[in-house]
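Hey all, sorry for the wall of text incoming. These are the two entities for the joint prediction.
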Amino acid sequence: MWDGSSNANLPWFKSHKSRVPETDIRDAEAYEFVENGETRPFVSETRTVHKDIAYEDGSTIDWLREEAAERERKRLIGTQRGLHGLLALLQDSAGMWLVIILTGLGIGVVGAWLDVLVKWLGDLREGRCAYGFFYNQVACCSGLDPGEICNEWQSWSQYLGVRSIFGQSLLQAAIYISLSSTSSIQIVFAGSSAVLVKTYAPYAFHTGIPEIKAILSGYVLDAFLGPWVLLIKALGLALAVASGLSLGKEGPLVHVACCWAYLLSRLLRQSGQNEVRKRKLLAAAAAAGVSVAFGSPLGGVLFGLEELDAFFDDGDVMWRGFVTSVIAAVSLQYIDPFGTSKLVLFQVSESGSTWRAFELVPWVFLAVVGGLLGSLLIKLNTAAAVYRRHSVLHDWPIVEVIGFTAITAAISYLVVFLRVQSSELVANLFLECDPAKGDYHGLCNPTATWANIFLLVLTALVKIGFTAWTFGMMIPAGIFLPTIAIGACLGRAVGLITQAWHRAYPNAWIFSSCPPDPTVRCISPGFYAIIGASAMLGGVTRMTISLVVILFELTGALSHVLPIMISVMVSKWVADAFGKDGIYSTWIAMRQYPWLPAREFRDKGQTAAHVMKAASNLVVIHDDGQGCTIKELDELVKRHTYHGFPVLYGDQLLGFVLRDKLRSCIDSMLAEDSNMDRKCTFQPPSRASGSDNSISDLSPLLDEAVLQLRKDVPLELVVNMFQKLNLRHILFSEGGKLTGMVTKTDIVWLLTAGAPHAGALAEKQF
Amino acid sequence: MWDGSSNANLPWFKSHKSRVPETDIRDAEAYEFVENGETRPFVSETRTVHKDIAYEDGSTIDWLREEAAERERKRLIGTQRGLHGLLALLQDSAGMWLVIILTGLGIGVVGAWLDVLVKWLGDLREGRCAYGFFYNQVACCSGLDPGEICNEWQSWSQYLGVRSIFGQSLLQAAIYISLSSTSSIQIVFAGSSAVLVKTYAPYAFHTGIPEIKAILSGYVLDAFLGPWVLLIKALGLALAVASGLSLGKEGPLVHVACCWAYLLSRLLRQSGQNEVRKRKLLAAAAAAGVSVAFGSPLGGVLFGLEELDAFFDDGDVMWRGFVTSVIAAVSLQYIDPFGTSKLVLFQVSESGSTWRAFELVPWVFLAVVGGLLGSLLIKLNTAAAVYRRHSVLHDWPIVEVIGFTAITAAISYLVVFLRVQSSELVANLFLECDPAKGDYHGLCNPTATWANIFLLVLTALVKIGFTAWTFGMMIPAGIFLPTIAIGACLGRAVGLITQAWHRAYPNAWIFSSCPPDPTVRCISPGFYAIIGASAMLGGVTRMTISLVVILFELTGALSHVLPIMISVMVSKWVADAFGKDGIYSTWIAMRQYPWLPAREFRDKGQTAAHVMKAASNLVVIHDDGQGCTIKELDELVKRHTYHGFPVLYGDQLLGFVLRDKLRSCIDSMLAEDSNMDRKCTFQPPSRASGSDNSISDLSPLLDEAVLQLRKDVPLELVVNMFQKLNLRHILFSEGGKLTGMVTKTDIVWLLTAGAPHAGALAEKQF
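and here's what came out:
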């Protein structure tokens, strides 16, 4: 209690955790403060918008406060009368839509440019364009009639003017060997990517989706979205994809899209300092990133909805995400980097448009296998990441990348399906065999069925190993495409087995629903590859509806949506039995971002008291109406980094004050008047003792919307409220007395503590 | 205060609103209650699941309590050990999925059956099938080779055996005149529909979507979902559609789907008494209803998400909605009532697959017109509904239906585009003119362009009038199809104008992007019709993303999604300027269901105090530790119908007790021991005075999760919390003292009070 007699310790805060020695704290004394005749309640408005308080990286935003600030901003615009007000309203709305549209356009362009860059890097092994080093072979030779010879594209020997056949071959061979034959060019690409990432933008490594999930849920990490990260991630991604490592560009594209949107919003001064507004824009950009990565605008929106949990119950945000997605997809289609003028990446042939009930048996088998292997992939990847963290590799990331690229290239050289690019492999595995179109590396050779099955299963298994290690190295890397490739190999293998069985026993009862004519295809192994891919994706990512939509927008296989759904569902069930978290949630748990999984939490009968910090362990501000000095508050703010403090009056809970609000208030008070002994109170003026003008009224600083519950509330409900309301803390009181507090960190810890390796990478320095 | 000395009035509740005379209330006296040696805290568990408390129709469910009960149920299943527990878990999960799958199948079948029934009703004017009265012409003649004459289908004259040419013509003419020629068969259909609805199931009238929105948000109206409503709505809908009135089947199909799901869940004892579980199932069914109505599975899911706001932040529910939608769509496609084996209802020709930038001008014009007319349609419809309510028509609904059907038929006879079925009209308006396919009622006659434009605009205007009156009569009626038809007429008219302009001035600078060859089509009026339809729908329903998805699933016009998006957006903006509510929200406001619009609410600086009922006006339970008698509580519950009461201890707020919990507790206490003077207290045992076993502990009845805020919280935040947390009430306290309370009804009133005619139909007796 504040009675003026206590000393050596500030009487109005009480801490069992303070680690700062208290020797430099002066005795607190009661004394009279002479007001200069003028009453100045310097925080006069009850609703002040604290625009100048920026969050530090690593903190969590206060959703309620940010939303209130945004509402206040809109209200201020709305109150302006006449033409000026109308113009301000228009400008506000138009600015937002401008950012949305430019984001969509930009992401479409970046996505197309990446595809072109990857193609150019691949072609660079062969030669160069006569009229421009930066054209790839297709662009260089465009505009020619079919059959015309392209003279503009020069192989290296032509360019270097080597005329003799012998010299030509020798040079070609030398360049090919040095640049491409086994692995050196791939090593160069991967190494450059790692150097770029390590040197210029460590945040550009990995997929980026775990961080984006955390940011969208309120985590502050602006460094992750900087322009430098944008550039390095895009460049490094192109190099990494061209390096032949087992990785995809899908996840990193979402990160690139978010960086781009953030850059735009800062250039156009749109999101300003408002963190909720910024997050709404980032959600739209993430949807557009998925839209471009898979050519799937609807899938992008649903990904934002399901996986990123990003639309905050707000139809407007979903609509903006949809607009951004569609604009991005349309601009990608307009640029048309693949020359197919189609959004569908892996077009499926229409021939296999009917399916038979007995096929559900191999499909469900595939789904179970996909769930098991997906779960295994997550576990291997986690183990690899933890091992890397604690081994010598942690200090030599570039060497690790170069070494593993060499290993990948060497092993891949042995198996034909590992040697080709993953996207090309997937496209061919999804296609049915058609004699008119030729054979893809012997895949359609009916006499080599068992060899193919062996090769496909081998490819899948090796790729699981590669992917588990690659996803987490110091390069930009997505996990979608490798997962699809693994699943497609397995699916195709199962399809080939079923087909071989059908060929061997065409009259078995199980095949009775097949057409009797043996020349008509009954089993379509290409579609089995799609089922395999969806099962594997279901096991690794644990997505449901957005995955199904992405897959059928990706392949155009609308007629087969029911089996895809079944396989995703079964695979998710199987994988969930071995751990509830998908790959992204696992990484979030390992890095320990303050992110709450959206899944339902069930307690075992505990109440809030189970996680609550009791009032006796909290740092609180005691205010009994006599007030406390600026100095004391200043000490409190300097000593403790908690994001806020409960304020008590006697033993009654007055409210909660945020640390940064308090700090900026103290700073501005001290700027006006450096008297450190000025007194302040948190009591509202009506209740403050008498008309004592000498005491500054700090009650407007109290948080307007702090939630108070009883401590015997079920724990489930507390978790549920944190999940739904984006809270940072809940106070518990009984009869007006503070009994304790729960913060978001407590809940995150509660939900992720069970995950294996939770926090294993938390302290990692990039 | 409870001191035993007050009399003539129950001292521990205080009401300024009681309307029941208080003469029968005995004096309250302090006395000793002799416990029979045995301490029986009859509500022993801290978490009791009150399964036996059913909600009455017209009340609102308590989401937090229902969710807690559902969690508890799952927890109990989870705690069962061994095989038994596993089986229970499997059964629980399998039962839910069985309902989901059967719902999807059933809705697909019902949708297909409705289409067949409508066709049969139409064919009934012509004749009957020889081998079964219930086959329509297509089904009767199926299985024949092309060109073969169908002898199974008999016209009425053949059936009645009239052989002479003269007699045949006469009979045919007589039947045709009596049954179909102008309007009599339509009047018979509409009249039967109205009689069915009025007599057997008044809830089957109208579209049903407003009620479903209210139910999904927590309103209790089980009578609306009964099996009788299902039957009558389906039958009445088929009759109404066949009657030629200006109505669609889309909205009512959603209602039918919900009835079906509810019936199934009761048959399979799945949802049980849990209201949240029931609503999750209904949400999935509603999505499936839209899926079948439009052949649009994704549109169904997004409709559920955007318009019904039905997925409660729960990925699982969305996934179930998706599964149900797809199963429904697939089973509809399998039954194939239209014989096209396509889901796409209005297939658009691919010819118009490119569009020019200048076309944005007429399209934006269409969007503005659509927004204006959509807003007008809502206002006309509201005015018609209010007029009907207060005029003599209110007592003669069947006469009104018959009379208006006659008027519709008579006026429609004059204009060719009004005479045809709306769905047929829309399908043809969406198609481009193709000389090979023939002309549709002169629509493609290039010499009659201006006549066509006049006819189309006339049709649109007349249809607006028809629809505004029809939507709200005592028959099942949807507003989607008429709105599409109005928009398509306008769009086609604008398309024809643009085309005529282009033909007149092919070299004008504005048309410079058109192909120079005049035989190549530059303007596609069919696509203008789609734009018109989306603009009109945007204006009437105010949906965004789900509307766009439904439209492109409906037409297959994926390449044109950008202009459709722009038109929906502009039209919504324009219409929003004349009133924020779409047609469904308007009806909800008129009927005054306790439903909170999801839109953002902005206060003008008010705080919660603005809507709060002050503590002095509340009926509260005072408990100062001496306890109160059962009789007093019983009187309180009998006298007041509020759904709960704050409990005070002295002037400190203890918590909140729900009326039905309290009532069931009192009932069970009285069943055990009819002593009305037994004492109870709401104080937790630890704080209750001493070890007085004679006082029953009612503290477990206190609501576990009542929210307490300070009354100077911004009003916006209070509204926001009601919207996001599905609350029924918030208590306001300061320093532990109750200051007031806000209920959901207060917030609904706050948000809808501004709407014109809010509550105009509230007291309507069906």
